[in-house]
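Quick one, T. Sequence first:
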Amino acid sequence: MNKRLKKIAIVITLAVGIIGFNFEHKIADAATKQQGRTIKQIKKSGKIKIAVFGDLKPYGWVDKNGKRQGYDIELAKKIAKDLGVKIKYVQVNANARVDALNSGKVDLALANFTVTPERKEVISFAKPYMKVSIGVASKKTSLITKVNQLKGKNLIVNKGTTAETYFTKEYTSAKLLKFDSKTQQFAALKDGRADAITDDNSYLFAWVKDHPDYKVGIKQLGEQSYISPGVQKGNKSVLKWTNKEIKKLNKSNFFKKDYKKTLAPYFGDDVKSTDITIGK
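Structure tokens:
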């Protein structure tokens, strides 16, 4: 083989090697994205990406000074502190939580995420840190106290919530007005665009306290549900660590303290810590 052919052979070999190297790394990157970052990778990066709400008071919202507040936010801060990392908040709407996890956009979802069989098919849930039920609120002057009173009535729901699922499958006689955000749905109720609103009873209780013309006439529909951190399906590392963390925080009464600090000031007398928090 002459020198010219040897040079060509070397160039081809190097090119193939580089292509193979890049291809293997692309496969590795895709696998990491598919499975999500491990706790080791999160610690190494120095930052955990957490999905939260930005307009759901008192669970996750932004105050007038641009600071995040709420029950879920306090939990996010504690998780980051115990991991020894900073937080990158990723604000989501209810119907964007699953996609945020599955796309690798976030490592964890702490956005008032109710555990359901359907959601468990596509993501994983860590141990619960709160319990809730579906409720219905309406004006006191035309209070809805029974579900059959909603027949033919306009009912506001938030897309991607358990309330939407319930009124799509279990009671179909109401006319559903669907909204993407909490801000939109409560604005629609105040504007008189519907007869009632359905959502998790825990934050309906909080909302009506600030809006005394309204009341939660139906406090519970369906079975009691649980709120848990959402984790990308198959991410055993984050799921295992988060389960241990929730167990530890329960033993230290973190959630009762979190309730007293962030939720109690926004609830009426008919809601107690034991109605919301998970016991030891």
